[in-house]
Amino acid sequence: MKLNRKGYLTVEIILASTIAFAIAFFLIEITVKLVSKTDDVYHETVIAYDDAIIINNIKEKIKDYIIETDGLDLVNCESKGCNIWGNRIGGVTEERWLYYDSVSKEIRFSEGAEEGKDRVTLYSKKVDDSISEVEISSNINRNVKPSDRIVFFNIKLKNIFTDNAYEMVIPINLVRQEEEIATIYLYMSGKYGDMSTTISFDKKKSNGYDVDLYANYDQLFESSQNTTLMACYLDKEKKNVYNFNSLDTMRYQGYYLEITNGIPNTLYCEFYENY
User: Fold this and answer.
1) Measured between alpha carbons, how far is 134 from 105 in angstroms, rounded to an integer?
2) Which domains does the chain carry?
3) What's the pLDDT at 268?
4) pLDDT-based confidence at residue 153 (cuts at 50, 70, 90)
């Protein structure tokens, strides 16, 4: 029996082709899956980064609006956005819109405008191209009550590649943090020089303020044992003397100054070494 040595058998060619196609298909499938996974991770990263930027900027804009208008009066939300009304003392203020523009694919925070005029965009951020749906809502969809302590704005996004849903939560504190800041403009004079400093603290949040002048400004003074004198005034021109000793609102021993909440909100004081 003679073998055919002139080439491959038809069966061999078919078998080799089948194996080659199977290997090629397997490699292509792995490549496609790897590329798809890489794209998913990329879009996930971009969305997470955008979320942080959007939350921070919109939160600051709403907080500024609340301060400007002396609080919130009304929040009215639909699926694509929320109307936000402030309560300005002395009259109505322009409302604000937090909404999604499906044409530009941007989440926007805009100032209200008269009918027939364009909205004034105060902040905008384009969402990733992988986002197919955006829904904006709030836990308050009515007039704001005095008992309301916080309002949440929720922005939900859906990814067309992974079918995952993402949610941005923007918390706004409605409780006013009242402050009463006391400021003392202090001029110090010692053997080795002069300097000015400012002492400031919130009288609502503390029982007073203590400062060791020698420890903090020892470069000015010769010794913590030296005699020191202090005089305070209610005005910068030193026309109105503030007698802190009789009012018992400030005490100093050596170089240690104790200040109570009873002091005026603004004082001008001189502290000097009697050498």
Assistant:
1) 9
2) 39-173 (no CATH), 181-273 (3.10.20)
3) 92
4) very high
Q: For residue 39, which phi and psi values (nearest 5 degrees)?
A: -65, -40
Which of 211, 198, 204, 212 is closest to 261 using CA atoms? 204
Say yes or no to pLDDT of 115 above 70: no
Q: Is the pTM of this model over 0.70?
A: no
CA 257 to chain CA mean position, Å: 36
Taking the mean position of all CA atoms in its chain, how far away is CA 255? 40
